[in-house]
Amino acid sequence: MRALPPYADLLGLSIAELRDGMPLLTMPFGEAVLGRPGFVHGGAIAGLLEMAAFAALHASLADEADVTVKPVNVSVDYLRGGREKITYALGHVSRLGRRIANVDVSAWQDDPGAPIATARMTMLLRRG
């Protein structure tokens, strides 16, 4: 599995485990992700969703080391405020084509069935 990029370190992200072969990312609450008092900043949530999408896509491309991935469309839906606790995110590759991949991502805190945000990302794949 590929390491997370440096941006993930700024947010304090780590891979907690694999779920059905996809990396489950965690983001602790702290000063680096603080928005208004008591809440996670929306930009930090979007960053977590993006990193989870990249991690899921790279896990799906495990046998292909020479692929460059670029996001071409990102849509984030904020469903509720993230509170002062660990936030989790998990991506699912819904389509993996030759040039385009679609990834769905969900972020939650207490219950995966009650997400705080979701994202849909379309990625351009450049195979080298």
TrEMBL record:
Gene3D superfamilies: Hotdog Thioesterase
GO molecular function: acyl-CoA hydrolase activity
Pfam families: 4HBT
UniProt entry keywords in alphabetical sequence: Hydrolase
Span of domain Thioesterase: 38-113
The keyword Hydrolase appears for this protein: yes
Recorded superkingdom: Bacteria
NCBIfam families: unchar_dom_1 (TIGR00369)
Entry protein name: Thioesterase domain-containing protein
Provenance organism: Sphingomonas sanxanigenens DSM 19645 = NX02
Biological classification of the source: Bacteria, Pseudomonadati, Pseudomonadota, Alphaproteobacteria, Sphingomonadales
